[in-house]
Amino acid sequence: MTAIPKQSSSSTRRSHSSGTTRSTSRTRGTTSGRQTQKQPTRKADQARVSQDVSAQSNVKQVPNFQSWASPNAAKSSELKPLSGDSMGRKDKGDNVKQLQEHLNKSGAKLEADGNFGPATQKAVRKFQRQNNLTVDGKVGPETMGALNKGLSLQKPESKAGPEDKKADPQAKKAEPAQKPEEAKKADPGAKKAQGLPQLAGKNLTPQEKYDHYAAMVQAAGGKIDPSKPTVLGLRGLGVDGQRHDSGRNTGSNDDTFVVLGRDKKGQPTVTELSGATHAATAKGSVAGGVAQLRPGNYDVSRRHDYKGHEAWAVNGGGNVPVYRDSNRDGRISDAEKANAVKKGTTGDAILFHWDRNASIGCQTLPVSQLNKLKAAVNGGNFNYTLLDANQAQ
Q1: Exposed, middle or buried, 381 (CB in 10 Å: 0-12/13-18/19+)?
Q2: Among 62, 253, 266, 329, whose Cα sits 20 to 30 Å from the Cα of 119?
């Protein structure tokens, strides 16, 4: 995060005061004899007056810092810590203005107008991604704490001398007291690397969870349609928050599907399901090797049952972009991915269906999870966004 550079007020005073000091000597004009007799008194008085004028002039030459400096830097490090309830889109007031000032201190370039608009929400999401927080575009205790902590880390080091050095050990002693609180607020499913997709925190409201996953879909160019469910596939991330190699192309139910929908009252619903976004076996009768659906955005439509259970077809069952396990080792290597992209490799009949432990490239779920998927999408069609959870968005 790039902090906004701040010009020192002390250097400002020097730059504006240099070259503006006025001389205390004055050119003598023609005077009367009576004036000449009183000249010593006038010289002393004039010297004092000249010094006063010079001092006042120098003060006036130092501009009001907030009148010309960047509004992002105007508050220096004196910002009041954020606290209280969460903030989100369309909120207004001094607390939002305070939030904007904190975001600006952390590198944003917002107008601190007290309106929580799209630009502020975008800045919040960026801050959350860069600091491994839940990316929901809202400011709750977790994000507030991170912003407050970020401000303390960005305060300039003191150069005053020995007295400041004495204060440093006290500051270090205060740090451990904050760490337990920070640990409690941390999302246990978070990945230390920046920008990786992660599960929504268990303590979030349905709306917050919905916003969290919707942000991932939108960042990938997917569709959020209020009249149609959206399914998010997270390859390489299980419902328990554990990550695994997303290149592995065998095994069952170690990935996550998230269904975003609306109930009859129009309220957001979020359903997290376990399944697999990859094949179950390393070998099959497929030319070129077992397939793996490439991350992207797809339309999924209801089709006839598949071996006695519900099934849906990706892009109508037609050609879809896939990777191929050409050496049949059960893993999609970077070279195999690059080759598939270069050649525009496609696959047929990629379905959502129940896990038979024999898939050669479909999206599969255990029967119990498949039934939950059916209920969550109301048995109909849906939009599908597939992400590699080990790739930063």
Answers
A1: middle
A2: 266
- β-strand partners of 322: 293
Q: Could you give the C-alpha distances from 380 to 219, 222, 299, 311, 334, in angstroms and in order?
A: 25, 18, 12, 10, 35
Contact between 32 and 40 (Cβ < 8 Å): no
CA distances from 187 to 70, 134, 351 (A): 35, 7, 33
**Phi then psi for 290, rounded to 5 degrees?**
-60, 145
Task: With a cut of 50, say whether residue 382 has pLDDT above it.
Answer: yes
Query: Who has greater pLDDT, 256 or 77?
Result: 256
Q: Which amino acid, residue 26? A: R
Q: Could you report the per-residue pLDDT of 132-182, keeping only the tens digit for each?
A: 888 889 998 888 888 888 754 443 333 343 333 344 444 444 334 444 444
Q: How far apart are CA 325 and CA 317, in angstroms?
A: 20
In one-letter notation, the amino acid at residue 276 is: A
pLDDT tens digits for 356-376?
Answer: 888 999 999 999 999 999 999
Taking 50 as the threshold, does the pLDDT of residue 62 lie above it? no
Question: What is the maximal distance between C-alpha atoms in the chain?
Answer: 124
Tokens of 374: 């059916």
Please tell me the distance from the alpha carbon of residue 209 to that of residue 179, in angstroms, as a whole number.
Answer: 26
pLDDT 10s digits, 21-43: 333 334 343 333 344 444 444 54
Q: Which fold has domain 45-183?
A: Muramoyl-pentapeptide Carboxypeptidase; domain 1 (1.10.101)
d(CA 237, CA 279) in angstroms, rounded, equals: 15
pLDDT computed for residue 210 by the predictor: 96
> Any idea how long the chain is?
393
Secondary structure class of 385 (helix, strand, coil):
strand
Domains of the chain, by residue range, sit at: 45-183, 206-388
Please give, one letter per residue, the 3-state secondary structure of 328-369: CCCECCHHHHHHHHHHCCEECCCEEEECCCCCCCCEEECHHH
Q: Torsion angle, CA of 239/243/249/253, rounded to 10 degrees?
A: -20
Evaluate whether 315 touches 381 at the Cβ level (below 8 Å). Answer: no
* Full-model pTM: 0.54
Identify the CA nearest to 305 among candidates 360, 354, 348, 257: 354
If 0-12 CB within 10 Å is exposed, 13-18 middle and 19+ buried, where does residue 302 land? middle
